[in-house]
Input
Amino acid sequence: MHLIPTNDEVIAMLRETGALREGHFEYTNGMHTDEYLQVALAFRYYQYAKVLSVGLSRRLRADPELRAMIREVSIVCPTIGGLPIAFGVCEALRAHQVYWAEPDTESAPMHFRQFVEPAPGEKILMVDDILRSGRRLTMLRALAEEKGAEVIGVAVAVYQPNPTIADLGNLPLFYLAKMDALYYKDATTCELCKRGVPIEKVWT
Output
């Protein structure tokens, strides 16, 4: 294993832990795909959680601008999947602290908990387990900036963009592995459906 795990090493860990599954899956938005990735499943195992968190922290330290301000930077994540890697990266970086935001319901806007929010002018790094559509991170960025924080970058364990990925602007993006899944807009365009491949609906 390399100090910063390679793309292939990360994918092997995800397969071994059951975080990466192949088949025929339908997301809650109706999109179909041939792979389903739930990075949080890999974080059930301490050894893999440590490798992924420390590996991502090393990727971040390799950036000279970020390295110069690490002690001033706070980590902010969307719950729930982002929490394990956010705390792991914060510990490995020795960053300032961790915040998190959450919606009350799936369709509700995100909010910080009482007494747990960034201060005006505070530099924050958004961290999550995966960047797929970017919806949660877009909401998180808007919320943090509404509080007056300065978002300096995005760090994720896995970058797996889908066709509807949000534009995060000029924010630096750091990740350990990039994966490309095959996406279909819905059942009418899905080749897996046409071939009669059994389908499994996923919750998130």
